[in-house]
Amino acid sequence: MTTTWTDIASLIEARGGVRCYQHGNERAWKVPHSTGGTFRVEVTLRPRWCSLGVDRWHTSNRDQLLAGPWFKEHIWPFIERAGHWRRAALFLPNGGPTYTGATGIDRADLLAVLELWIDAELAWGTKPAEAS
Question: Is residue 45 a part of any domain in this protein?
Answer without folding.
Answer: yes
